[in-house]
Each structure stands twice: as structure tokens, then as C-alpha cells.
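call fold target=DNA 3'-5' helicase
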Amino acid sequence: MPVRQANRRGRGRGRGILPKQSVKQESPSLSGRGTSAELSSATELSSDIESEANSKYICTRSSNGVQQLTLDSYTVSFTNKRDEIDSKPACTGFASARTALTNRQSEDVKMKIDPGNTSVEQPVIRLDAAQERISKLDFKRPLLIVAGAGSGKTATLCARVIEMMKSGVQPKGILVITFTNKAADELKQRIIRYMQASGLLKSEDMKDKGMVNNLMPSASTFHSWCYGIIMRFYRQLGMRKCPLVAAAESEHKRLMVLAKEQLEDCRRLVQCEQMLNIAPTKAAADDGGEQSIYIHHTEARWNEVLRLARETTGFSIESVDLDQDQNQQQRGKKTKFAEKAQTASQQVSLMRALYEHLYAVKGRVMGLVDLVENPIDFGSSFAGKDLVQGMLGFMYRAKAKGYKPQELPQIERSVLEAYNGMLRRFDLVDFDDILDMTNELLNDRSILEEIRGQFPYLLVDEFQDFNRQQTQLVLKLQEGVGQVTAVGDLKQSIFEFRGATCEENYHIFLEKFVDAQVEGKALGSMESLTTNYRSHKSIVDLSNILALETVDEGDAQLRRLLTPSQAVPDAPVVPVTVWNTSSMHDEAKTIGLRIKAILDRSTCKASDIAVISRCLNFGSYRPTGLIETELLRRGIPFVVRGGKSALKSKRMQIFMALIRLIANPDDDLAAEYCLDELVMGVGPAAARKIKNQGINQLARQSLFEKMAQASTNTSLLNKSARAGLQAFLADIALWQQRQIGHVPLSDLINDIFTKYVAHVEDDNDDKSKSQQASDGDDQGEDAVLDMAKAILDSLFEAPELLPPNVDPNVSRNGPCTMELLQVYSSHLCLLSTAAEDQGKLKKPKDKSGQKGRYEGAVVITTVHQAKGLEWEHVFLNHFIEYMFPMGFRGVSKADEARALMNPQIAKQNQQARALHYREESRLGYVAITRAKTGLYISVLEQYPVFWMEKVFGEPCKPSRFLPNIMYSAESSSKNKRRRY
């Protein structure tokens, strides 16, 4: 490793990382970076073997350019060659290893032909030795199964269920809990196949679904199971009827709007009582308390205010007009509590009118503050442009972590209590309420014993993703019983933002079950599944190195869970590729070329490839936007999961609407979008007038024709609106009549972009993408314009998509025809729709009737969305500090608010930085272990956009999760400077 590169990176190591004292001297450092002097001494070794100072890494270089990194027993083959393409099909090598694996007993259910009856296929359970041994361990003792990535944990869990039933345990006495509905369905299907293989389910039983359900154990998510408990015992919770579940965010937002109005209503109630000299009763004084603005059960108090207001001031309900509020409610999204919400809004409006009347009559004379003109100051707890959205985010975080309103300061407590009050008012519960209410029910000893008697055996999957409420349910069901099996992997816990408390979960389970004696029984046990059947040795060992950072070095109890994984010995090894690229444009081009090469030279499908990013939106910047453009340019289909595709950005939608309208003036959807977003001087009221023209006429008119008529109608629109319409229609006419047939399509795209798209702010209202592009690279082009041209390039590269009479070689630089523009418009719409399709994109057939070159679609996703999935080839982009891992942004608003009430919590928040980077390391572990065959890591040499350099400082540092010795020492930019 050259001294210059080593020195540069050695100095920047300390920014934003775990405290130095938390890592012991003898422990191998994840990144292996040291001081300048130490790194300089490393260069004195031979050219074939290099050792990075202050670490145990050894790097061996072979003649073909493939290098090997060694740390103790871990060996990672890697290369820095971007242009290296596998000489043989990339997927067939590992496929042969999987075939050999099946012969050795794989983790899944395989099918074999019964020699006695060749027409019948019988399922067979195949487990390796460790899986089979663990599945048969004592069912009456606690068991913790540590299952690494790709180790067959689901097969082991299902096999343990089968062994329980074979030993005489009643199926309905077994409760299997997992994290998602999809995982629960997969568990059920796997258990059914295993029951068939074990003879517990006959072929004639499969014809009767009721019989199958009776013979199967209970398998569901925690929320589904807990809701079933609430349905049985809701009266014990003091509820008049079984609550419905408010699952949609739109419902939560509507409830929060009503909760905010209710808080204002509570303040006005107190002041109304003061104006009418109503002394608060003891119940009223205790109702909300001094710590909360929210008041429970305000109906009786408002009725008393209303009665006295009628008697003393002559207030009349009939004088209040509620039609406006009704119309506003009807225009809103319909919810399962729509009618009740409308009634609640009317009541708030009535109480506000009552308050305004009393304040005008008495409050102003008494010198009171006008609460309508001085609403609640919510401070910084719900910062953001959208106050209600900020409240929602706060509520989600607080309830997911199990925080009680009493643990929060006044404003935060009031918001949480008001939101919960709205839920109860409409007989609703959210997902966190389901867990809280079930925990409350199980505090009743009689209910707990009934549930324990019904489900004496408990098996939980994905234990690392449980939150405090779920872990408490496990404790209540099994503490003192010990017939529980938990399966999970601490290294894959990545849902802390949803309230998961993995480290706390494992501490509790180890203390209460594994290391504790339960009522005279033997101690529980901890077992590990260590064979990774998914990936080859280089990927597995790189994940083992990264796993060293997933647990605090000083936490001896949890360090027991870091059992290293091992690959299948006969799996062929494909070197991990690590690229350093000069810019985001270089990175996107490299990834696009490599994906195209893999698809062209192997039997791999597009759906076998994934680009995994830490996030899909980083402030105003899209880390995968240019990669999407490169895939479009090469005609490679893709889908975006876990975020929005750049094709769905506001600026791209404006461009698409203009193209559609020019190609087809009768496209009313495109015309409406242009009218609402682009025409100067036309507001919502004027737009409605234009759309409603000729509404009673029999002859149908397109919206574009109505716009043309309205542009000269002086009685319909004012001068400003007419001028804006005329200018817009003139531009459309120019592109339709004068440029079609005279200029190339690429020039038309440039004109449209310059006129209407270049200066439009995108969805997040940050500066335009053109400015961002120039900040990111001196050769940068606007991302939307670049994508539009890439789509045009892909159209000319795929003749099967063009009309039969269109020659791509002539049309590329020749005058644009209306037919070509229409094909381009259709292609834009197809790609925009398909980019977020959760299924596989179906490419049109070519002229010979065969399918397109690339089957399926490349997946562009976040790490969180990729959890539990696998692909043959995985690309990790932007593998740099502050993006992977994300920089620590401080504790959440919910944690900050709680810390104000408890000094002990404040001390815990000081440790949040270390917790953050441990979770980020687990995200890195999950990302790496998604790959079966090819793993490609891209490291940027400069930050993508200018503001990152100003915020994070220079130079741009590779991720701490990448061992320093794997990073290519040769800069691809050669002292290239960014121009400002």
C-alpha cells in the first residue's frame, strides 16, 4: 500500500467512529488503519505479502491479480479490477456447489420419487447434522438458536415443531411466532410439507382445509395473535366493543389532526370555565393534571359551559354554520371512522364558535389571551415543514419503544394522550396498542394461566427484531415455565428505528432462560447454526470480519453470540470486487457496464441481480439516481423497492406530461397535470373553471380544447390567467407544428427541459437538480435531462420497440416524426410504471417472437428492504463514511423528550452514538450476506455533491466497514480537483 494513500487515510480515521477505549488492543480492528509511521513501515515488506500496521491483516497477491486478505482463520479473495469479467458464466459455478450441497443434505425440503409409485412425489426433510441435532433437543428446556445468514434457521425451527408433535405434543398447544405476515405464511407452508414428510398429515387430509388447520400448530405474527387475545377479552379492558385496527398512515394522520384540534379545544374549555366562573370539580382538577393539556371526558364539562352560555349571554347553536367543515371533511380521504371523524370535526367547530362568542362578550374585558389567535406552541419537538407529520413521527417512535405519556414532558405527553384518546373515542387500536393491551391483559393471573394452558410451548422466530412489548409477552408466557425456543441472529438486527431492542432482548433471554434454572429444571442451552449455504467463502469471511463490530467489545455476555459462520467447503470462490471511482458518474457507469456484462455473458437473469444502497434518498440527493439512468441507457429493466424511483420525481413527471401532451393533445390526464403545475397565472379556482366549461354539452371536448377556448374568454378568466394559458399553448404549438419533422428528438427534449423543467424544485423543495449536478461534478448534467436522454438511447438500441418503418440509425440524428415521439412517450410511461412494480417487468417480445434479452428486472433496494432476501450478484454503492455507515444525527425527539424527565435516560442517550454505529455495522453485515456469488463494492473518492464536503469535510473516506487493505491504492481521478 503506497505511503501517500496510507497517510491520507490514516489521518482521517477518527471522525465519527466508536470510542477508541471501547476496543481492546489485542482485538483485530475492523478497518485496520493505523498511524502514518506504522503504515509507512508496512511498505517495507515484500511485494507479494503486505501487512497493514497495527492489525493482523495479511494480504497475498497472486499472478492473476486476485488478492487474498487473511485475518486469523478468515480468508477473503478480492480484486480491484473494474473491467474484469468472469471467463465463465457467473452463476453456473455456484449452482454446481448447490447441487453437491443437496446431496449432503440441504436446509430445505426436497422432492424425491417413491420407487414403489413413480406417479407420486413425496416430500422429504433433509437437514444437516447440526440442524437435526438441534431440532431434537429437550422441548421442556429453554433453547436459544443463534442462526447466521443463510444457515437454514427456518428449516430447523419447522423441524423442531415436527419433532414436538412426533413426541406427543398436541399441535394446538404449540405457538409459533414470527415477525411478518409473509414469514408466517411461509412457516405454515413449510410445516405442512414437513408434516407430510413425517406422516403426520395424510394425502386425504390435504383435501380438507379444515382438517389441515385442526392438525397444524398455531403460526402467526405477534400482532395477529395478540389481536385474537383482545377479541376474547376486550371487556376486561373496559371497552364497549372489540376495537378495529387503524393500520393505514392516512388514518393515523387524520387521527393526529383531530388530536391536535382536541388539545386546542381542551385549552379553550378551561378558559371558558374561567370566563363563566365555573369552579373546577375535584374530578375535573384530577382529569388532566398539571402535566398535560389534554383532558379526558370533556363532554359533560362542555355541556355545562354551553348551558350557562345560553342562559347568560344568549349563545345559539343555530347561528353556527358547519357546512364548510362538512364539505372539507367530505373532500378528505375516507377512513373506517369517517362519519365519526366528521362528527368530531363539527363538535370542535361548535366549541370554537362557543369560545369565540364568550371571548368577545367576556374574555376581552377580563384581559385574557385570545387562544384562537395564540395556538399551542409545540416548540422543537415536532420540527419540520409539516407539523402533523412531525407529530406522527414522534408518536410512532415513542409508542414503538413502549414509552408511557407520564414519562414525557408536558407538550409531548399531551400529544400522545390526545392521539390515544382519539383512538379510544372511535374504538380503534394501532399496532403498538395491540401489544400494550395484550400485556395489560396478561397481568391478570386468571387470563395468563388460561393462555399458558392453551399454548404451553412457544417458538419465536426473528427474535432480534422484537421490541420491549414483544419481549415482555415472551417473559409473561414462559417465565417460570421455560418451554420456549427463540431463533435469531443479533448480527442481523437492523430495525432499531421501529423500536427493536435486540441487545436488551438477548440480555433478558440469556439471564431469564439460558443461564437461569427454571423451577428445578436443568439450565437452558444456546446452540448455533454456523454453515452458510448461501454464499461462498470470501463473502462469508468478509461478513465474519464485519461481525466483530456488531457487539460492544466489553459486553462479554453478548460476545458469546458472535459465532463465526463457515461456507460450504466445495463451493467455488468468486473474488469480491472493490472499486474506487472518481465520481458518482464514474460509479454509475461502472456498475451499469458490469451488470450488462454479467447478463450478456452468463445464464443469470436480471432478477438475480440487486443494487443495495444504504438509502434511496439522502436529503435532496438520490444515491441510485444515476445508476437507474445507466440501466435505462443500456435497456436493462429494473424495479425500485424501499423508496421512490427517480422516474417518479416531480420534475420527471412534468417532463413526461409535456411529452405526452405534445404527442397526444387528447390526453386529458397529461393536460390536467400541465394545467395544475405549469401554466402561469392559473390557480386552483381558475383551473376548475376551465375544466367545467361545457359540462352540460353533449359533445365531448378534450381538456386541451377547453384550455384553448378559455385563453380568449374574457368573461371566464382574468388577464393574467389568459396570458399564462396563451403562452403555454404557444409553446405546445411550436413543438407540435414547427419542430416535429424539422429537428431531432434529442433537440426537442432539450428545448422542453430548458423551458419548463430546469428550474422546477423537486419533491423535497431543495435546490434544483441542475445545481446539484454542477456541485457534484464539473461535467455533471441535470439528472432528469440525463435520464430522459438515456431512455432515448435505450429506445434506439432496442429496434423491437420501434415501429417497423422507423430506422434507428436514421432517426437517431434525423428529424423527429410524430410517430417516433409517440413511441418515446409510451416508452417513458412504461418504464415509469414498471420501475415501482413489485413483480417482474415483462419486456416486449422482439420481431422473432422471442422474449427480450433480460428476463425479470434488476432490483434497486435499501438494506432494510433486502433483509431476508438473496441474489446471485449484489452491488453496494457509495460505500463511504457518512453514507455507509450513516453519520450519527443524534437521538430521536422521543428519546430527547424522555431524557428531560429522567437523568438516567439522559445518561443512556449519551451512549446512543455507539449503539448507532453497532446497528450500522449490522446493516453492513446484512448487505454483504445477501450475495450468493458476486459481491461488488464501490468506494467514491469524492463526495457526490458539494454540500457534503462542506458538512463532512475532506477527504472522502472509505467506509470503516471495508478493511483498508482491500481498497485500491491507485486513484482513478489522478489529482482531479472539483471546480466550484
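return ok
The mean pLDDT is 79. The two ends are 31 Å apart (CA to CA).
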